[in-house]
């Protein structure tokens, strides 16, 4: 199945004047694709949505393999582009190792022609596109013409936009892999088991109240949990009713637990609090072992899905299922990811997650034809 990820660039605060980062060259656009996703895509179609000369969301979808359902692929892209009602255009990058010889059909030519036509019916035009290989990129729309030229990918690393985003703390990983700390701390199996016995002996509502108090203390603070706090939090996450309540508490907004877990509230999450939850879950994961890791990794995956990072969410869920193959929440949420279903938060520019390096400037002022 195609896995989607979608990232929204920062929107300016009301009444504020915001510095603009200009996109002047193809190198800038390709750099933006990598920084928006957080990794260098492989065998992927990446679409940057435009609203006139403003940059919208970035969408990544696995390229269709021979014999796959290209109709589903096209419907998926058209649907996700269409969620931005202000979209007037897209630029795309086809990241592939597939070779091309002049005189032959361009890679995925039939699919791209059909996709272009479908987008045009929605009033969305394809402004530009590139075929990006291992070491060069070429204008996809000019391939086969006398004016077609390939450029070295090294220019992307020296582009003005790439330098500015790196300066602001952004980076492009070699792959979408979710970085898990290598140096783990000793597992807390005995302490976790002790807290599980205590939780089982408590009134369910009292157990949830106690768990929320500790969880919110961690999310509202900045320190690392002690070993005993970590053991208690890990134990809490092993109980389904407690786990769901704690996950729903992460966004820091008052709404139904179901809508919070599915990322479909009208109010935007407090994303800094969500980032803090990821930090705490990482710290918990470093102290888990065996099946105890499944709820923690699933929580990390749910956050990645909320943020629109489908590939990273999938990896978290797969690692959770390696820890516990029967872990139901990981199975269900990974199914959403594999079907290309995004959280509502990730498809709305008013609620979508903004990485820290994009929260300052507005990206606009395209200098390209």
From TrEMBL:
Top-level taxon of the source organism: Bacteria
InterPro entries with a match to the protein in the record: DUF4192, TPR-like_helical_dom_sf, TPR_rpt
Entry keywords, A to Z: TPR repeat
Name of the protein in question: DUF4192 domain-containing protein
Key word Acyltransferase present: no
Family annotation (PROSITE patterns): TPR
Biological classification of the source: Bacteria, Bacillati, Actinomycetota, Actinomycetes, Micrococcales
Coiled coil regions, renumbered to chain: none
TPR repeats: 294-327
Species of the source: Arthrobacter psychrochitiniphilus
């Amino acid at each position: 199945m195609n896995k989607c990820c979608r990232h929204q660039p920062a929107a300016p605060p009301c009444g504020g004047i915001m510095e603009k980062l200009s996109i002047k060259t193809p190198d800038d656009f390709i750099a933006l694709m990598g920084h928006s996703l957080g990794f260098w895509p492989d065998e992927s179609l990446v679409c940057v949505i435009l609203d006139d000369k403003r940059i919208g969301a970035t969408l990544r979808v696995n390229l269709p393999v021979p014999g796959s359902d290209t109709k589903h692929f096209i419907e998926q892209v058209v649907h996700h582009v269409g969620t931005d009602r202000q979209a007037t255009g897209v630029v795309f990058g086809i990241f592939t190792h597939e070779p091309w010889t002049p005189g032959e059909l361009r890679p995925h030519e039939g699919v791209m022609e059909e996709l272009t036509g479908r987008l045009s019916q929605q009033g969305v035009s394809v402004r530009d596109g590139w075929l990006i290989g291992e070491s060069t990129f070429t204008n996809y729309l000019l391939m086969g013409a006398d004016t077609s030229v390939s450029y070295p990918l090294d220019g992307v690393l020296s582009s003005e936009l790439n330098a500015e985003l790196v300066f602001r703390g952004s980076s492009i990983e070699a792959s979408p892999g979710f970085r898990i700390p290598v140096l783990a701390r000793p597992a807390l199996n005995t302490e976790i088991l002790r807290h599980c016995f205590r939780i089982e002996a408590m009134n369910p509502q009292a157990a949830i109240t106690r768990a929320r108090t500790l969880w919110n203390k961690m999310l509202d603070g900045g320190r690392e949990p002690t070993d005993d706090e970590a053991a208690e939090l890990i134990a809490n996450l092993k109980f389904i009713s407690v786990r769901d309540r704690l996950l729903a508490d992460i966004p820091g907004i008052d709404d139904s637990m179901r809508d919070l877990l599915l990322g479909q509230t009208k109010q935007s999450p407090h994303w800094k609090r969500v980032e803090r939850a990821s930090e705490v879950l990482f710290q918990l994961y470093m102290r888990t072992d065996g099946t105890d890791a499944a709820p923690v990794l699933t929580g990390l995956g749910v956050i990645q899905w909320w943020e629109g990072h489908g590939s990273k969410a999938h990896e978290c869920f797969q690692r959770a299922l390696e820890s516990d193959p029967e872990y139901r929440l990981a199975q269900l949420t990974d199914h959403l990811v594999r079907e290309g279903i995004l959280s509502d938060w990730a498809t709305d520019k008013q609620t979508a997650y903004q990485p820290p390096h994009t929260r300052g400037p507005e990206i606009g002022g395209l200098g390209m034809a």
